[in-house]
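Lab meeting, item 3. Inverse folding demo.
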């Protein structure tokens, strides 16, 4: 069984495009600085993907009714988190500023002062972000598993997705200090990868599930040698999934329009927060706090929308295969 979310072309663009986009960006990096590519990707997709679940939630009449009946959970808590992150950024690090030009990207170092609230906030965000990436990948495998008519294997899928994304995050953080994958590491990677594909074949082959597994497994291997390709496979694909799924279930039944509006809104927010004259990307405390707070709100709304139990659009997506009400 195939079990596409929408169509092979739609899934290939929004869900299964990590490897093709990664190869394309790796080719582009031979002709232009990687810094330009990264900034363009951030401008086009990163902030838009943060806004996608929030925009979907408040523009979906059925889900909006649920949120208005639980204002503390859906309004007070997210606004409180956003206010807190901005406050921490302003008062904990008033002199902090980082400018990035398009000639080179600075190396990101893991901060050491855990007692600093500003640093602690970023570490909490970073850890939650990695978990969020893994759980989104798990959600994609779960959707494909249900659409293929299979209802077992949830725990193995979750363990695989979380293990892969945490390993990729660790390697990305320290990869400049690593000479390359050891023989033992490659043996473990190969055993897990082949084991997941063998399990997929035995359970009844689902092409999009298998391709998504291949994408994440290859991404984990390539982060050792090609950082930009690894970013594309994990980050860009993650952003596209967030925008694409939100557009797919939007009640307007105009996924392209919703996607374009979310991307434009995200570009606007990114420019207002970080872009200064001369196209210098300037990170200052209040803007960093707002961005981290928006990220936390994004994590919450993603869970509100896509959890596969209770009143959620994710449950409707699996049940109906298309747009539908949560009722």
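The presenter then showed the designed sequence:
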């Amino acid at each position: 069984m195939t079990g596409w979310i929408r169509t092979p072309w739609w899934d290939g663009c929004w869900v299964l495009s990590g490897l093709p986009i990664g190869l394309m960006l790796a080719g582009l990096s031979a002709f232009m600085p990687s810094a330009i590519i990264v900034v363009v990707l951030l401008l086009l997709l990163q902030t838009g993907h943060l806004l996608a679940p929030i925009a979907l939630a408040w523009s979906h009449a059925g889900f909006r009714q649920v949120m208005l009946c639980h204002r503390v959970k859906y309004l007070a808590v997210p606004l409180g988190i956003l206010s807190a992150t901005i406050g921490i950024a302003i008062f904990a690090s008033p002199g902090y500023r980082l400018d990035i030009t398009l000639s080179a990207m600075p190396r990101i170092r893991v901060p050491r002062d855990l007692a600093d609230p500003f640093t602690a906030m970023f570490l909490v965000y970073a850890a939650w972000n990695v978990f969020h990436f893994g759980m989104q990948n798990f959600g994609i495998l779960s959707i494909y598993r249900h659409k293929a008519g299979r209802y077992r294997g949830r725990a193995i899928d979750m363990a695989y997705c979380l293990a892969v994304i945490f390993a990729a995050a660790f390697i990305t953080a320290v990869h400049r200090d690593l000479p390359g994958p050891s023989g033992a590491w490659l043996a473990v990677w190969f055993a897990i990868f082949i084991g997941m594909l063998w399990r997929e074949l035995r359970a009844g082959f689902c092409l999009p599930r298998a391709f998504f597994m291949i994408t994440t497994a290859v991404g984990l291997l390539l982060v050792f040698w090609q950082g930009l390709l690894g970013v594309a496979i994990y980050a860009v694909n993650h952003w596209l999934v967030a925008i694409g799924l939100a557009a797919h279930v939007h009640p307007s039944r105009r996924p392209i329009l919703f996607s374009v509006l979310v991307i434009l809104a995200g570009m606007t927010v990114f420019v207002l927060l970080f872009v200064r004259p001369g196209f210098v990307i300037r990170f200052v405390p209040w803007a960093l706090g707002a961005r981290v707070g928006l990220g936390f709100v994004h994590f919450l709304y993603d869970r509100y929308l896509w959890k596969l139990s209770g009143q959620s659009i994710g449950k409707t997506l699996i049940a109906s295969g298309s747009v539908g009400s949560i009722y």
